[in-house]
Write a structure and sequence with these properties.
Porin; alpha+beta; ten-stranded antiparallel β-sheet; 3 helices; single chain; 15% helix
């Protein structure tokens, strides 16, 4: 007997049941990176491949959640810029930019759907596009053929945070590392992330018993 069809039906019904009881969230995520560093793909030029930035790093983008107060899955993307990012050993230009696309499993206070104040944690991964020397690439490096473009790294991210009850707000300390085996490119980010679930926020804003 071919069991693939019954198994497919079972998991499909389970999936529909999960969706029928799941909650949804839609909002924004804001990152403030304490430190970030990107290493460009390996090339044949005698120029430094890495650049870093401390403190002057911000990111903003949309985020969605699906799940329950104790557990959720989220997808987010941000556009980030570090205007003072540079290679301190070999100055070539200023500025760094990043675009991560991340899927995460979130637990307890990090679920984004929490109803009580609690500590939580998240783990996930995805892909991140990075660029260094965003502007002002010095002429001598351009003459060597150095051309800075966005390059991908495959990332993992972990964080510990705190959800502020059913207000829709949570913050999260995170670390993110990325690597590309083929190009030898790397990325590293560490910082604090602030999320707001606008659906939960608006619901509580309209609730006369809410503290908001």
């Amino acid at each position: 007997m071919n069991i693939q069809r019954p198994l497919f039906i079972f998991f499909f019904v389970l999936y529909l049941q999960t969706l029928s009881t799941a909650q949804f969230g839609l909002g924004l995520t804001f990152n403030y990176d304490f430190y970030q560093r990107y290493t460009n793909p390996r090339d044949n030029f005698e120029a430094g491949r890495s650049a870093g930035s401390v403190l002057t790093n911000i990111s903003l983008g949309p985020k969605i959640w699906i799940g329950k107060p104790s557990f959720s899955f989220s997808v987010e993307s941000q556009i980030g810029i570090a205007p003072l990012g540079l290679d301190t050993k070999e100055f070539k230009g200023l500025g760094m930019a990043t675009l991560p696309i991340i899927g995460q499993l979130n637990f307890k206070g990090n679920s984004g759907l929490q109803t009580e104040q609690s500590i939580g944690y998240s783990i996930g991964g995805g892909i991140q596009y990075n660029r260094t020397e965003l502007f002002g690439l010095k002429n001598k490096y351009e003459d060597l053929g150095v051309n800075r473009t966005f390059f991908p790294t495959y990332i993992i991210q972990a964080g510990v945070g705190y959800g502020i009850g059913n207000s829709g707000f949570l913050f999260n300390l995170f670390t993110r590392y990325g690597f590309n085996q083929e190009s030898k490119a790397q990325s590293f980010n560490i910082g604090i992330q602030f999320d707001i679930n606008m659906i939960a926020f608006r619901k509580n804003l309209n609730n006369p018993n809410s503290a908001l």
